[in-house]
Amino acid sequence: MNETVLELTKIVKRFPSLTANDNVDFDLKKGEVHALLGENGAGKSTLMNIVYGIYKADSGDVKINGKKVEISSPRKAIEYGIGMIQQHFSLVPSFDVTQNVALGLKDLGIIPDLSKVKKQIIEISKKYKISVDPDAKIWQISAGEQQRVEIIKLLYVKSQIMILDEPTAILTPQEAEGLFETIREMTKNGASVIFISHKLKEVLEISDRITVLRHGKVIGSVKTSETDENELAKMMVGREVVIKIEKPPSKASGEILKVDDLHVMNDKGLEAVKGVSFDVRSGEVLGIAGVEGNGQKELSEALYGMRNYRGTVTVEGIRVKPGNVMDRIKHHVAYIPQDRKADALCGGLPIYQNLFIKAFSSPSMRFNPYFFVPERLRSPSLKFIKDYSISASSVDLEAKFLSGGNMQKVVLAREIGNNSPKLIIAVHPTRGLDVGAEEFVYNVLMDQKARGAAILLIAGDLFEIFNLSDRVAVLYEGQIIGYSQPDESHLEEIGLMMAGVKK
Amino acid sequence: MNQDIITSTLSGALRSGTPLLFATLGEILAERSGVLNLGLEGMMLMGAFTGFSVSYITGNLWLAVMAAILVGGLMASLHAFMSITLRVNQVVSGLALVFLGEGLSGFWGHGFVGMQAESFNNIKIPFLGDIPYVGTIVFDRDILVYIGYIAVPVIWWFLYKTTAGMNLRAVGESPDAADARGINVVLTRYIYTIIGGFFSGLAGAYISLAYTPMWVQDMTAGRGWIAVALVIFAIWDPVIALIGAYAFGGISVLQFSFQIIQVPIPVNIMNMFPYLFTIFVMLFASSNKIKKRFGAPSALGIPYSREEKT
Amino acid sequence: MKIRFEKREKKPSKLLIFLASLLSVLIALVFLGFIILSLGDNPLTAYWQLVSWGLGTVPGLIQSLVSMMPLLFTSLGVLIAFKMKLWNIGAEGQFQMGAFAATWGALYLFPHLTNPWFFIPLLMMLGMVAGAFWGFLPGVMRAYLGVNEILSTLMLNYVAIYWVNYLTYGPWKGPHSYNFPVTAQFPQSAIFPQYGVGGLNLGIFISIGMAFFVLYLVRYTKFGFHLNIAGDNLRVGEYAGINVKKMIILVMVMGGAISGLGGMAEMSGVLFRLQPNFSPGYGYTAVIIAWLARLDPIATIIVSFFFGVLLVGSQQLQLFMQIPSSLVNAFNGILLFSLLASEIFLHYKIKWVRS
Description:
Chain A has 503 residues and is an alpha/beta fold. In chain A, 31% of the residues lie in helices and 25% in strands. A two-stranded antiparallel ribbon of chain B has the order 1-2.
C-alpha cells in the first residue's frame, strides 16, 4: 500500500487568461483512492488532463513508478497504464459498445476480431458485476450505462492508474453507490484511482486520501479518516461556507405557469417528454429533479418556445403558442438555459450588445427599428455591470472572453435586471460556477421569488434543489414520477424516484 | 434501333458516372475523417489538365494517370494544411481550391487546347464481355471504369471491416473519443484528405484521357460540385455512391439519347437536369434523422484542437 | 517541432486587419509571379500591364468602373448573407436571373414603353424580383429542410446559366444576330443614361449608392442588429425572439435582389442584350471581394474597384502579352488562401513547440 505509482511535482499550466495549475504536487499510491477536491474552475480537470496527455504542462515533472516520464499524448498515457474517464465521455455515438471498447486497441491487427473483444467484455462485466449490453449502440443507451462502458474500457486494458472526472454528476444516488462498489472492487485488484469531485460527501465516502485544490494551488492533503466536512469545505472555499441559503418562506399565490399534458420530441425524433402536467404559482419555486437526459432539455426548450410540443402551456391564464419565443417574452417569461455559451450569449459580440439582445423583443424596451445605433447601448449597460457586479475590463469585451460566472451574470442581468419577469425558467443555473458566483445566482433567484416571480428550477444537483425550491417534482423518462419535499430527509425517496421507482 | 439507344445510354451512364464515382468516393473518405473539401472541381480540373499534358508530352498513359493523382493529392494537402493545421474556414478554403484549380489549369492548359494525346481504349473482358446486352454495357469499357467497379467494394470493406476504417469513422464522428484512445486525429485527417485528392485527380484524368480525350478549359463542367452533392446523397456510403454516380451519369447522357429518338427537349434544358435532380435529392437527404442513423461524420468541417474545446 | 495555437485575448485592431489584408495581397502577388515565370514571362512587366491601363488612363479608369459595377452588386449580395454565416455562393445565378428578367421585360413584356422614367424602374424591379426568387429558393430549403445552401445555390447557378443559354440559343435569339446566340438590343428607353462615350452609366452610381444603403441596413437598423446576433449564434437569435427561419429567407431574398439588380444593370447599362457567358463569373469573384473587404460595405466598394482594375488588366494581358486571362482565377485562389491564413495569424498566437 506504500508504493507510489504516480507522482507529480511542481506542475504549472497557464492559459492565456489564468494560471490553472500553480506548482501543484500530487501523488498516488498503489491500491488507494485519492480524491482531488475543489470548486469548479479550481484546476482539477486541467491537472488530470496533463496526466492523461491531453494538455501539456508548462513546467513540472511526472513520475510513474518512480521513473520520470514525458506524457505527450493520450497514446503515451495509455502505454503507461493510465486510463481516464472524462466528464464528457469519449465514446463514438454510432458505434456499438464492443466497437467502442475495441477502438484504439494496439493488438487489433488489420481486421479486428470483435467477437474476441465481445467475449472479454462479457467476462469483465461478470467479474465486476457491471451490466452492459455489448451490442447496444452508444446513442441509444443512458448516460449511466455509457459510464459503465467507459469503466469497462479501462478494465479491458488493465489500466493501473484510473482517473475518474466527476463521475457521479450524471448518476442517481443509487447508481453512484453501485459505482463506488465497482471502484472498491477495482482497487482490491490492485488498481489505483484518482477521484475528481467537488462534492464533499461522496469524497468522504469513497476516498482514502484527499487533496484539495483552490485557484490552481494545492491547499492541503489529508487522510480521509482524519477529516470532516467542515474542514474540507473551509479548505475548498477558503472561508466559512454558508451552504444554507436564506430561503424566504413560500408565499405562493396566483398560478402563473400551467402545463397540461405536454409531449415533446427530442432531436432524434423520439418522444422525450411524455405527457407532463404541473403548475407553478407566483412566489414559489418548483424544483424539477432528475438524472440528466430524462427530458429536462426538451421540457425547458418547449416551455420557452424553442421547441415544438403537443399539449397546452398557459402563462397567467393565457395560452401561449408552441414554438414561439416572442409569445413568451411578451408575457414576461425569463429563461436561463442550461448551456449559456451555446444558447444565451453571442460570444463574438461585446458585452453591452449581449445585454440588449432582446432590445426589439422585450416589452419593456422601445427602440427605433429604422435608426438604431448599437453603440448607444454602452452607457445603459454600465448600470447592469454595476448592479450585477460583472467583472470585465470594458463593456466592449467580447462575451466569449468572460469567465463562466460573469457569463451567467450577463444572462441574469438581461433576463431579470430589465423587466421584472413573471416566470423564470432556470436550467442548471449554477453549473460550472464557483461558490461566489453560485451564491450570487441563488440570491438573485431568491430575491425574484420574494418579489413574486414564479420560478421553475430544473437542476441535476439535489442540494441546489433542496436549497432553493419549495416543492420538488422528479422527472424520469419524460414523466413526472412523483412529488416530494425539499429536504434531506427525503433524499432516499427522491433518489429512488430518480431511478424510476414510484412512491 | 431502340435497343441500341438503351445500350448506348446505359454504357454512357457508366462512362460519365465514373469520374463522379471517383470524386465522390474520395470525398467520402475525406468527409468521414471530418474534413469538408469543397474543392473537388479544382482538383479535378488540375487532374484533367495534368493527365492530358503528361500523356501529350510523354505518351505514357499510366504515367499521366499517376501524375494526375499526385497533383490531386498535392492540392488536397494544401487544403489539409489550411483546414487541419491552420484550422481556417473549410468552406472558403475549398472554394479557394476551386479558383486555384480553374485558374492554373486554364493558364497552363492554354497551349494544350486542340491537341491530341494518347487516351484509354475499351478492353473487352473475355467471357463476361460476351453476355448479351450486359456484356457490352458493363464489361466492354476502358480500364478506369473497371477500377471504379473494384474501388467500391474495397472502400466499403475498408470502412466497415478494418481497424483503420473504424479509426477513420471514429475520427470523423467524435475526434475527442478517438484522440483519448490514442488515435492520431491530425494524421488521420491529413491522410484521408490527401487520399480524397488522389481520387479527384484520378476523376479528372478520366475525363481528359478517356471520357472526352482532349483538353478544354473548365472541362469538368461542374462535376466536382455534383460529386460534393452526391456525397450527401450517398449518406457517406460507398455503395449508395455507386448507384448515385451512375444515375447522375445517366441523366447527363440522356440528352444525346433524347436527341436521337427526338424527344423535343432542348439540350440546354436537359443540361439542367443533373443540377435540378441534385437539389431534389438534397431535399430528402438533408434531414437530420437520416444523417444520425447512418453515422454521418458529426465533426464534419469542425477543426480539432486537443486543448481548445468549443 | 509542432505548431501550437493560442487564442489572442483581444480583438485585432482595424489597422492590423488592414495591414494583414494588404500583406495577403502582396504574398499572393509573389506566388502569382512564380506562376507567370513558369510560362517564361516577366511578372513585373505583367503586373505593370495589369494595372497601368486600368488605373493610369481615363478610358481605362472608366472601364474599371464599368467592371466594378457587377462585382460590387454581387459582392453586396453575398455580403449580407455572409453576415449571417449563410454561404450564399449563388450570386452568379441571381445575377443571371436578374439579367434574364430585365431582358424579358425590355424585349417581351413591355416592348412598347417609351418613357424611361417609368420603364427603367420597372426593369429594376423585375431584375430584383428575379434575383430575389433565386435567393428565396435556397433560403426556404435551408430554413425549413436544412438543405445546405452552398450546394443548393451552386446548383441553381448552373440552372440559371443553362436557362440563359436556352433562351439565347433558342426562342430569344435576335432577328439580326447572324445566328449568334444573342437577343435583340434593348430599346433606347430601357437603357441607363450614359455619360460620355467610355461606358460610364447610371448603374455604377446605383451600385455605389447600394453599398451605402447596405451599410445603413447592417449597421443602423433592427434588421442589422438581428443579423449580427443570428450570425454570431443562430440559437441565441431564436432565444432572443428573432424568427430565425424568416430571417434566413429574408437575408437570402435580399442578397438575391441586390445581385439580381446587378444583372439588370449589366443589361441596361453595359451590354444592352442578353448573351451566353455574359458573366465571367462575377458572382464567384464576389465571394472573395466580400471576404477581402471583411464584410464591410464601404471597403467592398474599394475592393470591387480593385478587382475591376484586375479584370480590365487581365484582358490587356491576354491582348498584349498573350497571357491567358485564367490567371486572374489563379490569383483569386491564392489570394483567398493567403487571406485565410492571415485571418488565423490575426486571431491566434502561433508558437513552435519542441515535442
